[in-house]
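Is this the right way to post structure tokens for a design question? Let me know if I should format differently. Anyway, here goes:
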């Protein structure tokens, strides 16, 4: 049985999360992690001064690296423990959550990455357990989600499979084996924001590992605290990353549909940008 204090470090990538970051760090230490590394993606000095009262390792690249690149720098600066807990700065980890995640990986050696149940502040469940989209699922989700959020395609994409298995989990919070994370080269740094979690899970599965999620571990995620400051840029990054994932993973006849995917995503981006401009 692993000892959290010896076997788990946490990496948090911050971008102006302010008091949410402090609450996140407090919850991580309360759960017994050995070390918390905070990557300051905002300008140097942007993390709240109160963070300096915590025993954290602060990585300040002086530029916004994006989420995946930030996590990679944080893991490189962290103590070399078997497990790494990756978290957004607006996440609060509930008591016992990390222990449950560690215990799951201890007993499932074929699983490289496991996610918790993620709750919104109002207590509703955030759909963090997902499947890799096929051509039709991806297309219908892309077209329908902006105008019909609860459409069947989006619900199918944002859910586990009928047998309870998952293809990938949200990068907002997860525990990963450091050996597996390093084997696949960490997060793919071609992704600035969005889909980097999907690409990481894809890479792990390509190396023969499983990805899973458990309900016994629970966190609360405010969602969107950092990206609200640059919402337009994040919308563009989201669609660019979705296209990159399709290009990266499409095989056989599906590669012929990449131009169609590019067209659908371009139309979707114009639709959501227009809707934002009128809100």
């Amino acid at each position: 049985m692993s000892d959290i204090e010896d076997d788990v470090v946490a990496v948090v990538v911050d971008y102006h999360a302010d008091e949410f970051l402090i609450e996140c760090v407090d919850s991580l230490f309360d759960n017994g992690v050995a070390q918390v590394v905070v990557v300051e993606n905002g300008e140097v000095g942007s993390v709240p001064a109160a963070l300096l009262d915590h025993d954290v390792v602060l990585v300040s690249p002086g530029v916004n690296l994006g989420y995946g690149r930030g996590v990679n720098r944080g893991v490189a600066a962290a103590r070399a423990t078997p497990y790494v807990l990756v978290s957004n700065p607006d996440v609060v980890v509930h008591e016992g959550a990390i222990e449950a995640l560690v215990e799951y990986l201890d007993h499932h050696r074929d699983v490289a990455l496991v996610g918790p149940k993620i709750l919104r502040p109002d207590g509703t469940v955030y759909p963090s357990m997902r499947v890799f989209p096929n051509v039709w699922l991806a297309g219908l989700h892309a077209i329908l989600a902006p105008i019909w959020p609860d459409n069947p395609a989006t619900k199918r994409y944002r859910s586990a499979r009928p047998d309870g298995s998952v293809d990938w989990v949200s990068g907002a919070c997860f525990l990963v084996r450091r050996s597996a994370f390093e084997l696949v080269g960490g997060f793919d740094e071609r992704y600035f924001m969005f889909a980097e979690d999907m690409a990481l899970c894809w890479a792990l599965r390509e190396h023969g590992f499983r990805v899973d999620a458990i309900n016994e571990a629970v966190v609360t995620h405010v969602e969107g605290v950092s990206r609200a400051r640059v919402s337009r840029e994040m919308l563009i990054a989201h669609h660019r990353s979705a296209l990159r994932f399709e290009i990266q993973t499409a095989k056989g006849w599906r590669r012929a549909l990449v131009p169609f995917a590019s067209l659908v995503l371009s139309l979707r981006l114009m639709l959501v940008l227009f809707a934002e401009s009128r809100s």
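Format looks fine. Someone answered above. Worth noting: The two ends are 52 Å apart (CA to CA). The longest helix spans residues 258-278.
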